[in-house]
Amino acid sequence: MRPPSVDDLRLPALALVAWGSALLAVLAPAWSAVPVVAVVGMVWARLRRRGRDTTTLLVWVCCGVGVVSSVLLRVDGVGSGPVADLARQRAVVQVELVTTSDPVLRPGRFGDVVLVRARVEQVSGRGRAHAVRAPVLLLGDTAWSRVELGSRVETSGRLAPPRSRDLAAVLGPRGPPRVVDVPGPLLGGAAALRASIREAVADRPPAPRALVPALVDGDDTAMPEGVAEDFRTAGLTHLLAVSGTNLTLVVGSLLLLARWAGVRARGLLVVGLLGVAGFVLLARTEPSVVRAAAMGVVGLLALGSHGRRQATRALGAAVLGLLLLDPWLALSAGFALSALATAGIVWLAPAWRDRMVRWVPRWVAEAVSVPLAAQLACTPLVAALSGQVSLVAVLANLLVAPAVGPATVLGLAGGVVGLVWPWLGAVVAAPAAWCASWIVAVAQRAADLPSASASWPTTALGLTLLSLTCLAVTVLLGHVLARRTTSVVLASLALVALLVPLPSPGWPPRGWVMVACDVGQGDALVLRVGPGRALVVDAGPDPAAADRCLRRLGVEDVPLVVLTHFHADHVDGLAGVLRGRRVGAVEVTGLAEPAGGAREVARVAAAAGVPVQRATYAGTRRLGDLEWQVVAPAGPPPAASESPPNDSSVVLLVRTRGVRLLLMGDEEEASQSRLLRETGGIEADVLKVAHHGSASQDPDLVRATGARLAVVSVGEDNDYGHPAPSLSALLRDAGMRVARTDRDGDVAVVVPAGGSGPAVVGSRD
């Protein structure tokens, strides 16, 4: 395979310059003229030196100036109009807007919140009316979940400044939406087809039922959280979102049908363009979909004659065009991953495939080389975003590759047929659901492997080392894949490494009785019951983090999960606790607030077949090495409580191996004082500090415990200033040794065999 020529690389090089210019213009507008001046200077010098190639060089200048100008105009237009001015004043306004995204339901701190992106076209506030075109993010109640994409809506509410520079404001509407115009026929037809695709697989099990629409049009709203986490661990997340693969499969199948029907030459071009437009309408005209469509077109070009040369140029043109249309894509991790994956497939996969065809069939070579190239190209960025390197991604993608195409194409066909004959649509889509079941099974099995992923430092040194490693692998892999014996031996060694757990020297420490997992700004405690068994108190905000902590501890059986209250930083990781483990029950507090958190817990537990029950006050229970008692809440939160969910947190007193642990939830100072009055003081050897070390602490309760160790479960560089300096001083004055998850990683409380009292060990020690 001949490498790309200099001419082939001109557009990709220009795209990289444009990308860097867009980043600089978005992050530091005052410096954005630097790359333009530099390019103009280089062009001028070259023109004077050579006196030719003027057309190409002038195109470079125009493109560079165009990208930076586009960024500056968009940034200025979004941040300086009437909507942005009113947002800075936090004005109450009357608006007419058009929704530009589907409503997304999210559990909030005080109830469910619906997020909708919209374009404000009329705004009235502070005594003046304006005609505008300003992007906003709307945070509404559940009534907004029924508003369709493309609807024209009138509403009133308060504007606030946004955190993102691609928005003019955040709008908090008052009351339900008043829809004055429904979406047009194109968007309406696309919505009908999306609904028909869901209906065609409605009688299938939950995971395949959710995966088929995700494969066809990126609709993953019904995907169980535990299954979604399996896909992330297995390196299959791209199947749950709109990607270039979706478009390649859909439009590629359409082109095959057109060719079979006798369409040729320009007719195929027209069919392809119509297919791309239809796909964008079906999957929604959002930036991520437009990005995926562009990358999918590049993938289609790579399949044709002279595919590598055409796709190389098309990739550069796609990146450049997308940045001109939406300069904020320069900051998008999804955009970067999509571009990297496409570049890997275009530049690496063909050469590796051609070397492998010497000893394997062509379809096998392509099935191995394509996911391998995409994964290797994306690995450094994925590690930077997640702190993990997937070790099963290539194997998982190889196993699901034969099923992705049929599931996507037949799922779409079932939806199309279902618009006319719903029963026949279900028949057509049945094989799609079977293929989706296989994909789900592969994701679950891959995620359950002992070495499915490995943690990786996200420091500059760590990421540089990983990038250099990937570069070295890229250089060497072509020589390896050309040799049958070497390839088989290395593949066998990699398979053994995946199936055999990697040793974790010194962790968990001998004699551990409790571990506070490092899950960021949240709580997740693991209490040892016996070998491979543990009671879990809270699950933190992230399923992946909770799952990783339990895996490191070798916990496979969880007789009981106690969720102290329903805030997201304590319950959102529940799916990670339940994944791949035997779980007996989930116990919760009596106050089901916020309601969104309570519903999410019920949904996740029901999907796993785990019962949810209320924790019983004052009851004492025993299991293995553990004995525990619920010592709060004894009743409803105080009438003057500033946070009833926090003040309704379950508090546990645990005894194990002669050590007493007091596990506080997020109680505020008033409820801590009430606990002290009602109990007369609770003595403990270890105190799990309330509310991540906030300043709202009752000093008398803290001192009354007489604890020698204090554990603070807190996120690194959190926005709350936890642990508060006053709390740190209080613990120090009480003579307690303090361990913190932000500083020490996973924190283990250890009881030595000699019975000398509890000690503490951090995973970073």
UniProtKB/TrEMBL annotation:
Residues 521-706 form the Metallo-beta-lactamase domain. InterPro entries: ComA-like_MBL, ComEC_N, Competence_DNA_uptake, Metallo-B-lactamas, RibonucZ/Hydroxyglut_hydro. Its main location: membrane. It is found in: Cell membrane. GO terms for cellular component: plasma membrane. Keywords: Cell membrane, Membrane, Transmembrane, Transmembrane helix. It is a multi-pass membrane protein. The chain crosses the membrane at residues 12-45, 57-75, 239-258, 265-282, 335-352, 364-385, 391-413, 420-440, 460-481, 488-507. The keyword Transmembrane applies. Pfam families: Competence, Lactamase_B. NCBIfam families: ComEC_N-term. This is Competence protein ComEC. It comes from Nocardioides aurantiacus.
